[in-house]
Amino acid sequence: MVRNPQQRRNERHQQPAAPTVRRGPSGGTKKPITVDAIVDAAFELVAADGYDALTMRRLAAALETGPASLYAHVVNKDDLGELLIGRLCARIEFPAPDPGAWREQITGVCAQLRDEYLRFPGITRATLAMVPTNLDTLRVNEGLFAILLAGGVPVQAAAWATDALGLYVNAYCLEISMRDAVRADGEDGWVVDRAEMRSRFAALPDTFPQTRRYAAELTAGDGHDRFDFTVGLMIAGLG
């Protein structure tokens, strides 16, 4: 019976595929192909060149095998992306939900997730339009949801807030990765720095009085100041 991609993914969640044994001139001396080996190699490629550069063919070459060997373990790049995100989500540490400190706990979890994603440029592309089935990914949703509920946030608001917080973290990390990729390509002229933005705002016509007047405030923020502000703003709306 031919199995569709969803069936293959479900089977892998229930029982990992057996390692693919190497054949040929190596005489079996190479490490076998496993899901973990594929994910490890994929992370190395993403860390070096970004998620957009990750292809199944390139990954197979890095593992000194053919794409067919990979497809015995992963369905396609989208499936691989879910595995990568799941591996990162597994690193997130969750405190026991505390009604008296739920805001700080949510902020801390979001910051952990942000830092994990930023280690691998563009990897949050894998989360776009993805319906999570990986248990490690679902664990993050469960953890955020539990903290919000412990804080007394109504169930429906907590459910939507869990989704909204995840979307913001993903978008924030993707924007930074895209900016850094442009700079790495030597296209600094397309990434306007703060001083240039202020100069442009100051030169705007009189039809932009507020933008001209508050150029410093509009371009302010160092490090993750804007991230902290936005997560805090979202949480404040739930109190």
Number of strands: 0
Proportion of β residues?
under 5%
Largest sheet, strands/sense/barrel: none
Identify low-pLDDT runs: none
| H/E element order | HHHHHHHHHHHH
> Which outline best applies?
flat
Which quaternary structure do these chains form? single chain
- Please report the distance between the alpha carbons of the first and last residues: 53 Å
Radius of gyration computed on alpha carbons: 22 Å
Summarize this, please?
With 239 residues, the chain is an all-alpha fold.
Describe it.
This protein is 59% helix and 0% strand. By secondary structure, the chain is an all-alpha fold. Helix 5 (77-89) packs across helix 7, helix 7 crosses helix 8 (155-184) and helix 8 runs antiparallel to helix 12 (225-236). The protein is flat, with a radius of gyration of 22 Å. The termini are far apart.
Write the layout of secondary structure elements.
Blueprint: H1 5-14, H2 35-49, H3 56-62, H4 67-70, H5 77-89, H6 102-118, H7 135-150, H8 155-184, H9 194-202, H10 209-213, H11 215-218, H12 225-236
Can you tag this structure with a few keywords?
12 helices, 59% helix, mainly alpha, 239 residues
